[in-house]
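Cross-check.
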Amino acid sequence: MGRLAAWSVLEAGQTLLAGYAPARALDAGFLAHRPLTGLGWLGVAAVAVPAGAYGTGRVYRNVAALAEPLRDALVRRVVARGVRRAEAAAVSRLTHQVEIARDTFAGLVLLARSFVFTAVGALTGLLLLDPLLLVVVVPPLAVGLALFAATLRPMARRQEAFLTADEAIAAELALVSGGLRDVTAAGAEDRVAAGAGALIDAEYRAARRLAWWSVVRAAAPVAGGRLPVVLLLALAPWLTGRGVTPGALVGALTYLTQSLQPALQTLTHGLGTGGSRLTVVLRRLLRGADASPRPAPVPPGGPPPGAPAVELRGVTFGYGPGAEPVVRGLDLTVPHGGHLAVVGPSGVGKSTVTALIAGVLVADAGRIRVCGAPPGPPAHRVLIPQEAYVFTGTVRDNLGYLREDPVADDEARAAAEAVGAARLIDRLGGLDAPLDPAALAAGERQLIALARAFLSPAPVVLLDEATCHLDPAAEARAERAFAARPGGTLIVVAHRIASARRAGRVLVMDGPHTDCGTHQELLDRSARYRDLVGAWDGRADAEAGAEEEAPEAATGTERVGRSHPAGPL
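Predicted model, tokenized:
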């Protein structure tokens, strides 16, 4: 800022001489019959032009040094909040609003600096020429600035309304583009187009209101820049009668037409639009995290007293209006602290049930409650799918991804030890080691995701074949850790018989028919479950034989990354 001001002073010197030098050239030179003096003063004004241009060039460099760090800081905030909270408006903020903030900030710095130093230079020149000139110029200039200031707040409100409409369009189009095939399959093109069109019309109306206030704002440069010229010409006889020289009048007109009027016009147009836009954008970018809805806090101990952890009543879901329902009339209750295994043939809808509980899918009919509420707040449940999500960053970043607060080292290590990921983390180099997802085996990615879920505040954990790439010992360790997690409820889509045997209850899915009970109860009454158990046992015998034929294979968690066939499940 200091360097910016210093170079601006050099630029302001050109403004000062632009009116003062011609005035002196006229009064002390040409009107006094001394042409060489007049030419000398004009030469001084000419020399000031390249000097001012050099100062302007240095100004731009310093403005860039101010604007780019602002953009980088805003990008970091938007990306961090968008990734952590999955904000629908993050795309609009990153691709549109951050660039508005950077460009507008740089432009406003240039505008404000230019107006301040131009005004100081011009008013100083008027004072040096004749203080009486300030009496004519300053009052209308002050009126123009006051009129301009009065439009700033309404412009800011209209600008915020426009950006809100823009974010709504971005969120709607992101949703539509991700489901175009579903929209077409459901024949909902007209309905979706009408909804998007309504949002576009709302943005159009907001833009028109913003443009109307821009017209009102245009009166400011007329009052502050052009009215003084009219007054100066109209009062010229009165001014000359009180000692104002012709050269001083010419210099004053030069200051008004070449310096003050253009500077005020640029300020009102640039700051009027850019200032309100910057105020609104920064408020949304910097305070959006505090103003946006946060996930509902997890009630102490899980769901409210008397409410089950998970409750489904008459839930029906199909992939499309005309499709056969995958889940039909499902009733299910999982108590607080319960451990449920979901089993059934491949494609019967086990993953669909976990997605419905997690809120990834919305039921066509029926009611779903997670911790006594609809499955909306992500703090109530965490879903780990078969393909574990691991991102580039540090191990600590990945483990703390589902936490609002930083995770302490001892807590992170305890979670890793509980699910069997401690040796992997030590081999990677510790919690602050960089993590390359492509360098990890599938089972290693699953261990990182399991430790992340264990550290999350969610009381309900859904493992949708999230241990399929682990060996039986590692799988058992992870499931027991989640089952013993304080205040936790575990739902597992099982792919081994051991998972069903460890669970307190088992949900058997067989097309539209479901059955729920303990492992022994289902063996006694469910032919489908007995068939599944027989298929599991046969697969387990085959795997055991394969292990005997390959004694060099590692055991336990050392075999992480080996994929076991899913068989009929």
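Residues 35-85 form the longest helix (51 residues). The longest strand covers residues 310-317. Passed to J.P. for a second look.
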